[in-house]
Amino acid sequence: MSLSRKTAVAGVFEHPTRFAPDKSLFQIMAESLRGALDDAGLTIKDVNGLCTTGMGMSGMGIVGFCDYLNLTPNFVDSTSIGGSSFVAHTAHAAAAIHAGLCDVCVVVYGSTAASSRFAIGTGGERGGAGDPCDQYEIPFGPTTVGAYAMVAQRHMHDYGTTSAQLAEIAVTTRLHASMNPAAKYRDPITVEDVLASRIISSPLHLLDCCIISDGGGALVITSAERTRDLKKKPVYILGAGETVRHAARGQRDFLEIAAAQSGRLAFERAGVAHKDIDMAMIYDSFTITVLATLENLGFCKRGEGGAFVSGGRLRFDGEFPINTDGGGLSSNHPGMRGIFLVIEAAKQLRGECGPRQVKDCEIALAHGTGGALGTRHSGATLILSNQ
Amino acid sequence: MVEQTQAKKYSKPLPHLDEENRPWWEALQRHELYIQKCATCGDIRYYPRALCTNCMSSQVQWIKCSGRGKVYTFTTTYQNQAPGFRESIPYIMAYVELEEGVKMLTNLVDCRPEQAKIGMPVEVVFEDVTPAVTLAKFRPAR
After folding, report:
1. What is the pLDDT of residue A113?
2. Does residue B1 surpass a pLDDT of 50?
3. Where in chain A is the domain with CATH 3.40.47.10?
């Protein structure tokens, strides 16, 4: 991509809240935006681009949020493709800055999913949806977890992948959460704990599923040139890709997911190879999401994901560190969590992760999945570097 | 009496019928399952659409299905707070690959959770859930 290293993440902020019945959605978003601007050494007066979407806002919520903060940006993007949206927003912001549409673009997300008691994943939340595709699904009781579970079931059938292998992902992620003071669940768990937790939708157990929390976060994106006189070391945007997968008129291979295409595009555009990636933030709505994503991004061959995630290989000090913040499985999952993937990747590249810091971290990858692997979903990949 | 009527009321979500999909749903009411084939390029598709995703032709051919297929994948759901399903757990949701070559999301019925297997031969059963809507579900082939 011609915009490689032309733009950078200049500031990040993860809202510390995990349960905020005392805060409004826009308040969480605004506090997150303020945090990211402080981190970058910029002010609200510098912002002339805005990207946001969310579950708690209306279809025109981005305009409402501009009203709340009295913003009149030159560039707005409310791409809404599920939890991956904010990874895609980061790329869109980079492209907009490179094209001269704005100079300083903030990507922001907030949610009161926990205090508003959203039954994310098992609430039949897709019932009554109005797209043509929904009419052939809603009568049969689809849930988000069920759609992912069907991918897990097929993977197990085709490749002998086991629940214990999927559990390793949850165990490693919890270990990372234990090193993150802000994480919601910090007590270490074992493979046996995951297998002993109740089945939500076979073959996925409770501890194969992400948590539900409140939360928010923001990123400041600007030109590489502009970062020179800012507070923090820039985290350059090397390349990005995005796409969708769906039922493909009834002819889909459900183990081939959006990451295969978005990942290939991101690697091509970044001009880096898989072996160059020092750590990855992989959307972990469910353990199977991580395994399928690692295979489809090309870090291992299809069918080899079970072995790839086993033996502590994904630990912060392992061969392929992922989700060092504790992920959606243990730290926070306020409905959508793409923004936290970029925040933690940037913090790792800035060397700010304390006990969970990945050694010699120079290039990181963030991949967001939005929607449901077993029906329709989006994938957005971003490759970042401190060099 | 009132209570009895309400208890029998079908409470699961219903599809929205429109002029584009009505022929498909009306066939189900007659206990017939169809998929579409493009009359121009021959591409098959499910669910029904007004035009071909391959060549964008509006020429549609309806293919009557045998009703036989195999389980492509499935999940037994133990948690769903949605009305109608809350009362039905555990239930099995599956993609069935029809003999004609498309995968349909459906429920496996007359099938215990431990009995469900990928690759299992299944056959369609038509469930008349309301006067306007019949659903195509599948059971282990007999």
Report:
1. 86
2. no
3. 7-116+214-237, 132-210+239-385
Instruction: Please state the pTM of the whole predicted model.
Output: 0.96
Selected residues 82-121 of chain B with any CB under 8 Å from a CB in chain A: 82-85, 88, 91, 93-95, 101-107, 113, 118-119
Burial of A43 (0-12, 13-18, 19+ CB in 10 A): exposed
pLDDT digits (tens, 9 = 90+) for A112-166: 988 887 766 776 544 445 899 999 999 999 999 999 999 999 999 999 999 999 9
Q: State which residue of chain B sits closest to A205, comparing Cα positions.
A: B78
Helix (H) or strand (E) holding A346: helix A338-349
Please report the domains of chain B, with CATH numbers, ordered by start residue.
18-64 (no CATH), 66-142 (2.40.50.840)
**What distance in Å separates residue B29's CA from the closest CA in chain A?**
15
CB B93 within 8 A of CB B107: yes
Question: Under a CB-based contact definition with an 8 Å cutoff, are residues B34 and B66 in contact?
Answer: no
- DSSP letter for A161, please: -
User: CA B44 to CA B54: how far, in whole Å?
Assistant: 9
ipTM over 0.85: yes
3-state SS class at A340 = helix
The number of angstroms, rounded, from the C-alpha of A375 to the middle of its chain's C-alpha atoms is 19
Predicted local confidence at residue A123, as pLDDT: 62
| CB spacing of B81 vs A123 below 8 angstroms | yes
Beta-carbon separation of B118 and A142 below 8 A? no
- Topology of A132-210+239-385 in CATH? Peroxisomal Thiolase; Chain A, domain 1 (3.40.47)
**Are A12 and A342 a contacting pair, CB within 8 Å?**
yes
A7-116+214-237 to CATH, choices 2.60.40.420, 1.10.275.10, 3.40.47.10, 3.90.226.10 = 3.40.47.10
Do A104 and A47 touch, CB atoms closer than 8 A?
yes
